[in-house]
Amino acid sequence: MNQLAKICQMHKKKDGMIIEKKVNFNMKILSRIALCLVLLMGAATAGRVQMLSKDTTVNALVKNDWIVQFVSNSDYVITYTLLNTLNGQIVTCKIHSSDNKVQCFKP
Asked: 1, 3, 78, 104: which is deepest, by most CB within 10 A?
């Protein structure tokens, strides 16, 4: 009877380990599928932008009823996000510190 109890316990442990491995494997598959879907959907939502003329500056936009909403910077780029008070349009301007080139665009 003692050996029968040991055999039953061994089978229980093996069954439990098999179930755990299946769950872990399924979770790995599900997480990979979710990651792929997120990456695909992120690329699908990217849209075209309208580039403004090279003569456009942040100061010129501010003089024409645009308000600076956000300013952010990194090592090489300063980004301004402006809002038009008349029609609610948004413009983003990036200034590269290496050459002080201004690029403005509408989303």
From this structure: 104
Q: Judge contact between 96 and 76, C-beta under 8 A.
A: yes
The answer to whether 93 and 77 have CB atoms below 8 angstroms apart is: no
List, for residues 40-95, the tens digit of each pLDDT value: 766 555 567 899 998 899 999 999 889 999 999 988 899 999 999 889 899 999 99
Helix (H, G, I), strand (E, B) or coil at 63: helix
**Same domain for 11 and 28?**
yes
Per DSSP, the three-state class of 32 is helix
DSSP state of 33: H
Residues 42 and 74 both lie in one domain: no
Do 40 and 54 belong to one domain? no
Segment (H or E) for 20? helix 2-44
Total domains in the chain come to 2
The residue range of the domain holding 97 is 50-106
d(CA 46, CA 34): 19
